[in-house]
Amino acid sequence: MTTNDIADLRAALATMQDQLARVSESTTLHAQALDSLERLADTPPPTDAVDQADPDTTPEPPAPAAESGPPDLAVLIPWVQANVSGWCERKLSNSGQGDVRWCTRWYAHPEAITRFWVLRSVQIAAASEGPEAVSAYLRDHFDHHLGVLIAPTGPFNRCTADLHEPHRRYLTTEVPGSAYSGQPQQ
């Protein structure tokens, strides 16, 4: 076996390991989504809203309250698909050299998860307040956070629409009394 053959086998193995990791992530996300759906199915509808409703109209469910807990990807992924990636019209960089970056695996970027979770919460609150609040949400929150995420210096800076590059931590903190090397941790 030649050195090139070994290199090719290693490259194939690395590709398969990456595919396996993606399948594992996808399986976990689907399991979380199914768990959420099962919890919803097991929850009976509130009887007081149905009893008082006009029989000729279907009652509208109340707007969900904004969550203050940790992000739930089973909730967040469909929200991003519907309210960001499936709705937002921005010209993306296909070469990785442009101003607007998007990562199809945005959920692998911790900063993106946090920013989208906050956006979702603010959008829910704004929707219940009316059109002026939605306008303020778009101007003050959506445009700001999306601008940070897709900027050349944002978390997707190494990604393209077709390629996810793992994030790298560039900000470091020196711990007093430690042997700090000054090198970013990966």
Structure, described:
This protein has helices spanning 3-42, 47-51, 73-85, 110-129, 131-150. The protein has 186 residues and is mainly α. It has five helices and no strands. Residues 45-66 have low confidence and may be disordered. The longest helix has 40 residues, at 3-42. It folds into two domains: 1-42; 65-168, no CATH class. The protein starts with a helix and ends in a 36-residue tail after the last helix.
Radius of gyration: 22 Å
Low-confidence parts lasting 5 or more residues at pLDDT below 50?
45-66
Shape: elongated
Count the strands?
0
Question: Helices and strands, in N-to-C order?
Answer: HHHHH
The N- to C-terminal Cα distance equals 33 Å
> How many domains in all?
2
Largest sheet: none
Number of helices: 5
Could you estimate the helical fraction of the residues in percent? 40-55%
- Share of residues in strands: under 5%
Instruction: Provide mean pLDDT, rounded.
Output: 73
Determine the structural class based on helices, strands and strand pairing.
mainly alpha
